[in-house]
Amino acid sequence: MTVTNIKDPNIRIKKALPKYFEILKTKAKPRFKSANLDAKIKEAYKILQSCELCERKCHINRLKGEKGWCQVQDQMKIVSIFPHLGEEFFLVPSLTIFFWSCTFSCQFCQNWTISQRVDKGEIFKEERLAKVIDSFSDTCKNVNFVGGDPTPYLPFILKTLKLVKSDIPVIWNSNFYMSEKSMELLKGIVDVYLSDFKYFSDKCAERLSLVKNYSKVVSRNHELAFKDAELVIRHLVLPNHFECCTKPILKYIAKNFKDRVVVNIMDQYRPEYNACKFKDINRTLTCGEFEKVENLTKKLNLNYIT
Question: CATH topology for 9-305?
Answer without folding.
Answer: TIM Barrel (3.20.20)
